[in-house]
Design brief:
It contains 16 helices and eight strands. By secondary structure, the chain is α/β, with parallel strands linked by helices. The chain has a domain of 133 residues: Rossmann fold. Bound molecules: iron/sulfur cluster.
């Protein structure tokens, strides 16, 4: 049985969207973002509402295809479609985007061109070794973003406000980690599907309300009796998984447990903490902007070069969560993730099920056959 009924989550989210609509009528600004490199603390410290744009879906993908080139990934197509169709996307006043892959460089330009929504484009140095000049360049980018956010909201970012948002988002990251860590146990009570729901809801609710929701889920987990049925323990990886990919998690979890992931819409958002004030610069302290720059620069992703940190991340999670197999879901034309599958399989030494699809629903029975065949091998 689900820890939080789907209908309850839908209601929470519906109410939050209504709240955002009302806040905008009072002059609030909404900043939509896509990936783990978006410094949400800065957005909120400027007085704007950060909202993660992580919907997919076949209808949105089809609606969005007319805007982008033929080999755009399904996520980017659906994003364009959702700006037409989704009530939350229609509340977005500005988009915060990071140059993670070629499509992510093009998508914001199309959003600006077709929907007239201003885009703040952050340049993340592709080379991942944190040499001072690279981190300094990213820090310069954050300064520019702070200025653009202040212009959007009419409110400059104060140091105290930024410190307070860093603490609030650290708490949210910590609570999501705590929820995810309940899956270290054998026969975990919290499913991968619920974890995806929880994270997606948290990114909509903001840190304060989201923490209360997660505390409630943790109370339910603590009170529920353990069932003890041993099933294969799986990790999820690949291109961004959206809220509309929930069906795949449900399908896998009919016969296995998704105990962790290496997704940007999963653990990679909430792993780690921005150092809080009081530390010396040598111990990772400094101004809040310096700490944010170092934290975000150090996030692992496949698109960085070298991307060994991404492999070390995956290996650590395989060890710590006793993973027995990897379900690796890539989107058609998503090169940054598709090209790595063989190397990742070798590095992890695990059986891998690689699913490379768009958002169409017609192939779900084929996917089911492949999932079942894979699980039988474990
Ligand atoms: S990384 Fe892959 S899924 Fe994500 S935007 Fe780029 S091409 Fe699309």
């Amino acid at each position: 049985m689900e820890l939080i009924p789907r209908a309850t989550l839908d209601q929470i989210r519906h109410e939050r969207v209504e709240e955002i609509v009302a806040a905008r009528k009072q002059g609030a600004k909404v900043v939509g973002y896509f990936c783990i490199y978006a410094p949400v603390e800065l957005v909120q410290a400027a007085g704007a509402i950060p909202v993660r744009l992580m919907r997919g879906g076949q209808a949105a993908e089809e609606a969005g295809e007319k805007y982008l080139r033929a080999d755009a990934c399904s996520f980017c197509n659906s994003c364009m479609g959702n700006f037409e169709r989704d009530q939350m996307y229609r509340q977005v006043d500005a988009v915060l985007s990071v140059n993670t892959c070629d499509m992510m460089r093009r998508l914001p330009e199309s959003i600006e061109q077709h929907f007239g929504i201003p885009v703040f484009q952050l340049y993340m140095p592709r080379t991942s070794e944190p040499l001072p000049h690279r981190v300094a360049e990213f820090r310069r980018q954050l300064d520019g973003l702070a200025g653009e956010l202040a212009t959007l909201t009419g409110s400059a970012i104060g140091t105290e406000q930024l410190e307070s948002e860093i603490a609030a988002f650290n708490r949210l990251r910590g609570m999501l980690r705590q929820a995810s860590d309940t899956r270290r146990m054998s026969a975990p009570l919290l499913s991968g599907g619920t974890m995806l729901d929880l994270a997606a809801t948290a990114w909509l609710l903001g840190p304060v309300k989201a923490v209360s929701l997660i505390e409630e889920v943790l109370r339910i987990v603590a009170a529920r009796p353990r069932q003890g049925t041993r099933r294969p323990r799986l990790m999820l990886g690949g291109s961004m998984l959206t809220e509309d990919d929930r069906w795949l998690l449900d399908m896998v979890e009919e016969k296995a447990d998704i105990v962790t992931d290496i997704l940007c819409t999963g653990t990679r958002w909430f792993e780690g903490t921005v150092p809080e004030r009081g530390l010396s610069p040598e111990a990772g302290g400094g101004s809040p902007m310096d700490r944010l720059a170092r934290f975000y620069f150090g996030r692992p992703c496949m698109h960085r070069r070298p991307n060994s940190a991404m492999y070390e991340y995956a290996q650590r999670f395989v060890r710590e969560f006793r993973v027995e197999g990897l379900v690796y879901k890539t989107l058609l034309y998503c090169d940054p993730w598709s090209f790595e599958v063989r190397r990742l399989q070798e590095a992890l030494g695990l059986p891998v099920l690689h699913l490379d699809t768009d958002y169409s629903t017609e192939n779900r029975e084929q996917v089911r056959t492949r999932v079942e065949a894979f699980l039988e091998t474990l």
